[in-house]
């Protein structure tokens, strides 16, 4: 069922106001992975809660307790649970999103201040941390609510919202909340939910909208090698002692090959090879090696074969090295032997891999490799957070509603994709609620989520808001 023309017109007419609201959201540096920003994550929860309330949503902020991050005990940002509509004749859609963001410093290489939304009038880009991941999509839902409230239009479905502030850091506390609420059956917050919609990933390219039925899981490791009680002068102690950095760099070099092969024994064996039928699915997608080169800004794909490249993101596990804490990294030439260094790496996992299967393989291998070094330094390996992979039934009416909505707004069929990123809570929703979960992305493949100069195109924000609203009408029209 098409969305009313007045809804579509309202979104177009109010585009500048919506962009200004996105500017307010981006201005709050709600970085969940840095304790110093924790008050900002709380500020963001209050801002979002206020917006939802002003648009007629009944909300509660659920305290998720405390956690320890980098040795510091911190309060977890609240989950925002919201509800609007309780008509038993209508379907009930649960919307999930996250109001926290990845870290960003201008010195990382941003052309503009990361927490000041810049509207590039020439390109139509809305540039700022969180613009596409995930503040833009969350605000897309606010735009839909505002249109209905202002126009006096009844919503076509009942809506439930679950917004969290820890997604970029393992979604701590949220699984327990979902499980305890679902244990309360129909009296719990999620009682009566018919389907879930998450807008928190990206198109494959910058042309073709998509809907997404899979996510990779993730296991994030921290590998610490420590030796002396303090940093040392390399001229005084070099070649006298075992150096933690030397050990760590050797260990990290044993994790992944330059061609992307994961070197931890047993990890890749769990994944079956794609047959011709499956390869044909990837072949049909509107995607090319050039799209990757354009998105990353250099011709550096691991293969020249489109299907191999795309399978690397959608259905293969990957291991990425992220950084080394404690190492010297500033300008100049400091002649230091760092006392303790921690390497961070993560493995994106696909079915049938689970964190429970992967973690022991990694720990055993790293310990074996460390033993081979005959070092007198100490090794510690920790799992910082993890999440399981997820694949959904894309023949479900929830996907059909999203396909029709995308068709109506963009006048073209969406690609059907699996995403390489992770949203840990997705599988929890699918399993605990026992309903279909859909990913309906707003942004493009070149948005630079987690990167410098993250952006959301103005047209994706505005047309994407129309898609979200139209999707609700399509769900409302489903008879199943
Ligand atoms: C896909 C989603 N927008 C996202 O970026 N998820 C993160 C989740 C995460 C896990 N650890 C840190 N962040 C991702 O896939 O990296
Ligand atoms: Zn993210
Ligand atoms: Zn996200």
Brief synopsis:
This protein is 35% helix and 22% strand. The chain is an alpha+beta fold and 480 residues long.
Based on CA atoms alone, the radius of gyration comes out at 23 Å
> How are strands sequenced across the largest beta sheet?
1-4-8-5-9-19
Helix content: 25-40%
Strand portion: 15-25%
DSSP strand count? 20
Q: Structural class, please?
A: alpha+beta
What is the helix tally?
14
Average pLDDT figure? 97
**How many structural domains in the coordinates?**
2
Q: List the uncertain runs.
A: none
Family: Belongs to the peptidase M20A family.
Organism: Dichomitus squalens
Cofactor: Mn(2+)
Pfam family, one: Peptidase_M20
Can you offer a commentary on this structure?
This protein has 480 residues and is of the alpha+beta class. It folds into two domains: 5-216 and 389-477, Zn peptidases (Aminopeptidase); 217-271 and 316-387, 2-Layer Sandwich (Alpha-Beta Plaits). The protein has helices at 5-13, 15-26, 38-54, 131-151, 174-183, 234-237, 244-253, 276-284, 289-296, 306-314, 355-372, 397-410, 425-433, 458-477; strands at residues 58-62, 66-69, 72-75, 79-84, 92-98, 118-120, 125-127, 158-164, 195-198, 210-215, 217-226, 232-233, 318-325, 336-337, 340-349, 378-387, 390-391, 415-419, 436-439, 455-457. The strands form six sheets. It has a six-stranded mixed β-sheet, sandwiched between helices. Strands 13-15-11-16 form a four-stranded antiparallel β-sheet. Helix 1 (5-13) crosses helix 4. The longest helix has 21 residues, at 131-151. The mean pLDDT is 97. The protein binds the ligand C[C@H](N)C(=O)N[C@@H](Cc1c[nH]cn1)C(=O)O and zinc ion (ZN) (2 copies). The site of one zinc ion has 5 residues, from helix 4. One zinc ion is lined by residues 102, 133, 168, 449-450.
């Amino acid at each position: 069922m098409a969305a009313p023309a007045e809804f579509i017109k309202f979104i177009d007419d109010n585009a500048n106001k919506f962009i200004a609201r996105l500017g307010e959201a981006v201005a709050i540096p709600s970085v969940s992975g840095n304790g110093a920003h924790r008050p900002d994550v709380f500020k963001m929860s209050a801002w979002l809660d206020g917006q939802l309330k002003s648009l007629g949503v009944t909300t509660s902020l659920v305290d998720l307790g405390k956690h320890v991050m980098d040795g510091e005990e911190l309060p977890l940002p609240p989950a925002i649970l919201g509800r609007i509509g309780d008509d038993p004749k209508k379907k009930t859609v649960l919307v999930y999103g996250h109001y926290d963001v990845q870290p960003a410093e201008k010195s990382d290489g941003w052309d503009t201040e990361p927490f000041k939304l810049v509207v590039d009038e020439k390109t139509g880009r809305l540039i700022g941390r969180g613009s596409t991941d995930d503040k833009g999509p969350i605000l897309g839902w606010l735009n839909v609510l505002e249109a209905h409230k202002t126009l006096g239009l009844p919503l076509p479905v009942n809506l439930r919202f679950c917004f969290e502030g820890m997604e970029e850091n393992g979604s701590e506390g949220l699984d327990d909340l979902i499980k305890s609420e679902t244990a309360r059956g129909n009296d719990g917050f999620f009682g009566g939910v018919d389907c879930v919609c998450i807008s928190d990933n990206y198109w494959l390219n910058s042309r073709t909208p998509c809907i997404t039925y899979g996510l990779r899981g993730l296991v994030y490791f921290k590998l610490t090698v420590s030796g002396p009680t303090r940093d040392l002068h390399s001229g005084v102690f070099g070649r006298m002692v075992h150096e933690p950095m030397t050990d760590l760099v050797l260990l990290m070099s044993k994790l992944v090959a330059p061609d992307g092969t994961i070197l931890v024994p047993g990890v890749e064996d769990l994944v079956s090879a794609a047959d011709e039928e499956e390869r044909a699915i990837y072949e049909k997608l509107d995607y090319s090696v050039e799209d990757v080169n354009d998105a990353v800004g250099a011709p550096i794909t691991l293969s020249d074969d489109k299907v191999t490249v795309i399978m690397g993101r959608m259905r293969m596990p990957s291991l990425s090295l992220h950084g080394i804490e404690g190492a010297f990294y500033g300008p100049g030439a400091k002649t230091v032997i760092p006392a303790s260094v921690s390497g961070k790496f993560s493995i994106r996992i696909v079915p049938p891999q689970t964190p429970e299967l992967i973690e022991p393989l990694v720990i055993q291998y790293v310990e074996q490799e460390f033993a081979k070094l005959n070092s007198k330094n100490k090794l510690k390996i920790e799992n910082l957070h993890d999440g399981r992979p997820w694949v959904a039934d894309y023949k479900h009416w929830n996907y059909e509603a999203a396909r029709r909505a995308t068709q109506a707004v963009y006048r073209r069929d969406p690609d059907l994709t699996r995403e390489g990123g992770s949203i840990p809570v997705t599988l929890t929703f699918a399993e605990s609620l026992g309903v279909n979960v859909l990913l309906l992305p707003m942004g493009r493949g070149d948005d630079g989520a987690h990167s410098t100069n993250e952006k959301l195109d103005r047209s994706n924000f505005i047309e994407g808001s129309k898609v979200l609203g139209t999707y609700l009408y399509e769900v409302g029209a489903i008879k199943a």
